[in-house]
Give the backbone structure.
Amino acid sequence: MLHLINESPFESNSLDDCLKYAAKGSPILFFEDAIYGAMAGTSLEEKIKMVLADHDVYVLKEDLAMRGVDQLVTGMKEVDYPGFVGLVEEHKTASW
Amino acid sequence: MLHLINESPFESNSLDDCLKYAAKGSPILFFEDAIYGAMAGTSLEEKIKMVLADHDVYVLKEDLAMRGVDQLVTGMKEVDYPGFVGLVEEHKTASW
Amino acid sequence: MNEEMEENEEVAKLMIVFRSAPYGSIYAFEGLENVLIMAAYDQDISVLFIDDGVYAIKKGMDTTATGIKNFSPTFKAMEAYDIEKVFIDRTSMEARGLKLEDLVVEPEVIESDAVEKMMEEQKNFFMF
Amino acid sequence: MNEEMEENEEVAKLMIVFRSAPYGSIYAFEGLENVLIMAAYDQDISVLFIDDGVYAIKKGMDTTATGIKNFSPTFKAMEAYDIEKVFIDRTSMEARGLKLEDLVVEPEVIESDAVEKMMEEQKNFFMF
Amino acid sequence: MKFGILITEGPYQHEASDSAYQFAKAALAKGHEILRVFFYQDGVLNSTKLMEPQADDRHIQKQWSALATENGIEFIVCVAAAKRRGINDTVTAEGFKIGGLGMLTELAIEADRVVEFRA
Amino acid sequence: MKFGILITEGPYQHEASDSAYQFAKAALAKGHEILRVFFYQDGVLNSTKLMEPQADDRHIQKQWSALATENGIEFIVCVAAAKRRGINDTVTAEGFKIGGLGMLTELAIEADRVVEFRA
């Protein structure tokens, strides 16, 4: 199952909620304001590294560019909209 | 300063954000979905008790009734809308 | 599309997941409307309450002071609509100070690690 | 109301507080529009960035792929509008991985315990 | 006291508009003056007379219109926010006027308190 | 694959509608079929032809209408959600049709994937 996270993890608990249910190995996509969770050098970086140990975590390129975020936590995978569609082809999708 | 919190503290960090800035003694009002933070017996009860040590915390009666919440963390003060107006008479107001 | 469906498809497993508190936003209310409409389609419907969605079925709501429509009694109509697969996540319920007797319906309690599996089993599901 | 104001009132201290990230919701954008309008009224205007609002003034935004309007250059117009009191909360900035050189404007850094005091000093303020 | 109210969310989707309405009624009942209610962002959607809620639910626009006309309160719908969302004077209901964002600044200058109702 | 899209937020206030639009374009470009886009809750507000954003911003309704007509995709605006928010067939733009909530269930039955764009 692909989990879609679109809120800033600084302001919303939707990532934590998702992690309670997501099986090890299930991919997660950060887009919209959730992309701040993918940024290197924030207070959430250690937490995100722990998420990366159990999940492939993708981040949407177009939303990164829009927000001027270019330094990512090591291990995050960038996808564009066609890549987003590709993930949805492969997985059922939960929007948190 | 009166701080207005209207989001569920289970899903949003707006209470934590507010507490970073609120001076000891500044009152806080929980209304709308924030009233779940006032409920007794939740996993947030200890945290709310710590907030109560530094702040008067009010909870809006009409929003409690609407959500069927009747058991409150000890020390929470109930106000109705006229009481809400009274708090705003006394304090400048920040809506988180 | 309805006719095409009847020709081509088996009964589909569909699920509505409630994860928002009532009244603060309309997600829970419009989720419930969706459940009742879905029930008319003779499919295999499940309903799941997780996170703040567990508050949508709390007993004792009284909206008279605000004039907002109290929709919690409508959850009880699910049974009359033959919706029998109703589940609640144990950790969400317990963290939010609720017991089964606090609820207007009688969901089956499931563990959090069963949630994703239940989602995977559906043809499609919606989160409200 | 404008004329009455000019007769009856001293210059008022007013503040806009940015606390939302840009693009995910419109709060930051409409907050900025509000700042620029306020600047026309010859009052004592302050602007404060806290929480996710610090991301509203991050450098390097490029919205060409989505067609959404990039409003970050407009923050630079604040100076031309004589808005000189621009502040940022240190803990919000640091927790979110930003340094002053990452920002399109040059706010004065303040500590979190100065935020409420700054709000109290205003005649009125808005949070976006 | 002189109150102002700012609403940044639309009807039904969030409770903000309901809360603001209850607050406004309580403030008037306590003898306060409401100088202006300013509808900004999705708040502009409260003003449409095309709104037709279910018969057993509250009618948010009509509640607001009655409050404005019975108490002579000025309701301003921000023009730029409104245009972006499909609200213009062909759909605004009684009691709502479309106006500039400057009227929010003027409210902040004039009012003793401006209370913001948001998501 | 047969895709469905569900949108529960209005234009401009949240990014949901923009994200859904970009997703829909990318899905079509990869050769997928979009059976239906269903506009629910505040999502119904995407459909109003009265929308007039600033000239230098994207026009969300026109983007959607073009996508519908150029690709023959069915756009359904939920009737109950629409009425509550002041959307009826006097304001819906080209490409949008008002329909019942049952059409969302039908979409869930028919589509291989329904992706939900929300706040």
In short: The CA atoms of residues 62 and 68 of chain B lie 10 Å apart. The domain at 2-95 of chain B is CATH 3.40.1260.10 (Hypothetical Protein Ychn; Chain: A,).
